[in-house]
């Protein structure tokens, strides 16, 4: 699939999977707008993604703020003329026992994983409706379908599981309007979130006995973006976790 000239918005684009996705998109000729809370980290990421600045733009701010979400999409359209694909990558993960979560952690989870998704996706789909085409792909987690006693993470399941449900619901609602909606459900991926000393223990949680690489999630995003007859799909990229043990 050729993506030259296509326009992507990537939330959580200053590091990890989001930045890796943006780098690959620009490498293949796309235009990308990235978002995260901190302007300094976004500016540094933008230089790494495209040193020329011709194919990347960034919008700093908390996407759970409706005004930031609107500005993100408005600036995308102003800079590049349209939005073809939204990659809802922004998210947080805190593994701890259910009764140990604080009110602040609960609020932060909802804000980042759900409220930001809602506002940005709503604004993006308004533009896609005008165009009569578009694609939304969200990053969730395989823990939704594969809870583990070793990784207590009910807030991940509560919030990212909600995105899985929303993905299917939106896919059906917009199927006849030219807009597809899918999700990638990763296992544990080698990102800055996981210190190297934890990799050996995390690897054995997967039937394939290794952690995933960021490029494997990027490949899944690109597959879904090019699969024009696929919508409402939750694509597991988790080394077999969702299949069983």
Largest sheet: 7 strands, parallel
Proportion of beta-strand residues: 15-25%
Class by alpha and beta content: alpha/beta
Q: Biggest sheet: strands side by side, in what order?
A: 3-2-1-4-5-6-7
How far the N terminus sits from the C terminus, by CA atoms, comes to 34 Å
In the CATH hierarchy, what is the class?
A: Alpha Beta
Rounded average pLDDT:
95
Tell me which CATH architecture applies here: 3-Layer(aba) Sandwich
* H and E string: EHEHEHEHEHEHHE
Please give a quick description of this structure.
With 245 residues, the chain is an alpha/beta fold.
Write the layout of secondary structure elements.
Layout: E1 7-11, H1 16-27, E2 31-36, H2 39-49, E3 56-60, H3 66-80, E4 85-88, H4 103-131, E5 134-139, H5 154-174, E6 179-186, H6 199-203, H7 214-226, E7 234-237
Parallel strand pairs: 1-2, 1-4, 2-3, 4-5, 5-6, 6-7
Helix pairs in contact: 1-7, 3-4, 4-5
């Amino acid at each position: 699939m050729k993506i030259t000239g296509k326009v992507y918005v990537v939330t959580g684009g200053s590091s990890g999977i989001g930045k890796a996705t943006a780098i690959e998109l620009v490498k293949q000729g796309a235009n990308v707008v990235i978002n995260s809370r901190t302007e300094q980290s976004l500016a540094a990421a933008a230089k790494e993604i495209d040193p020329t600045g011709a194919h990347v733009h960034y919008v700093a701010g908390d996407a759970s703020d409706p005004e930031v979400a609107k500005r993100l999409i408005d600036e995308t359209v102003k800079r590049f003329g349209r939005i073809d694909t939204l990659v809802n990558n922004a998210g947080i993960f805190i593994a701890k026992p259910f009764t140990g979560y604080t009110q602040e952690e609960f609020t932060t989870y909802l804000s980042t994983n759900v409220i930001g998704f809602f506002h940005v996706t709503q604004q993006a789909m308004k533009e896609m409706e005008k165009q009569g085409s578009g694609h939304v792909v969200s990053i969730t987690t395989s823990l939704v379908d594969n809870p583990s006693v070793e990784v207590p993470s009910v807030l991940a399941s509560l919030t990212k599981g909600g995105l899985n449900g929303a993905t299917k619901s939106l896919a059906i609602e917009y199927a006849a309007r030219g807009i597809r909606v899918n999700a990638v459900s990763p296992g544990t991926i080698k990102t800055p979130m996981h210190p190297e000393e934890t990799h050996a223990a995390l690897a054995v949680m997967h039937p394939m006995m290794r952690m995933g690489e960021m490029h494997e999630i990027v490949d899944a995003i690109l597959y879904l973006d090019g699969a024009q007859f696929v919508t409402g799909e939750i694509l597991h990229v988790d080394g077999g976790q969702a299949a069983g043990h």
